[in-house]
């Protein structure tokens, strides 16, 4: 999953750039579809996707990818950055959660 194959490429005619459209990110927060923690090696940047492999084989692209990933991990994927967003989302769905007849106690 993850970078290996869970995306499609779209050519934006206005910008003349390709954009990534992610999909099927059931493991986004490190859990499988049953909510169990995943092994950290499960979400990898290597695999059998020819496009990903070819792009990351180009040193300048691999360096840029790593730099962007490190910046995201250091600045945005932190408790202090994410907590207000998660709490805001939680508050926005709370009324609906309370009405969910299938929610476990």
TrEMBL record:
Highest taxon of the lineage: Bacteria
Family matches, as Pfam families: CotH (PF08757)
Keywords per UniProt: Capsid protein, Virion
Transmembrane feature ranges: none
Protein name, UniProt field: Spore coat protein CotH
Organism listed in the record: Bacillus wiedmannii
UniProt lineage: Bacteria, Bacillati, Bacillota, Bacilli, Bacillales
Gene: cotH
């Amino acid at each position: 999953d993850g970078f290996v194959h869970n995306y499609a490429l779209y050519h934006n005619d206005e910008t003349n750039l390709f954009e990534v459209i992610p999909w099927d990110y059931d493991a986004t927060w490190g859990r499988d579809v049953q909510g169990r923690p995943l092994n950290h090696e499960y979400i990898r940047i290597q695999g059998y996707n020819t496009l990903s492999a070819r792009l990351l084989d180009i040193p300048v692209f691999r360096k840029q990818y790593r730099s962007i990933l490190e910046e995201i991990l250091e600045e945005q994927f932190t408790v202090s950055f994410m907590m207000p967003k998660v709490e805001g989302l939680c508050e926005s769905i709370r009324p609906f959660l309370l009405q969910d007849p299938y929610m476990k106690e």
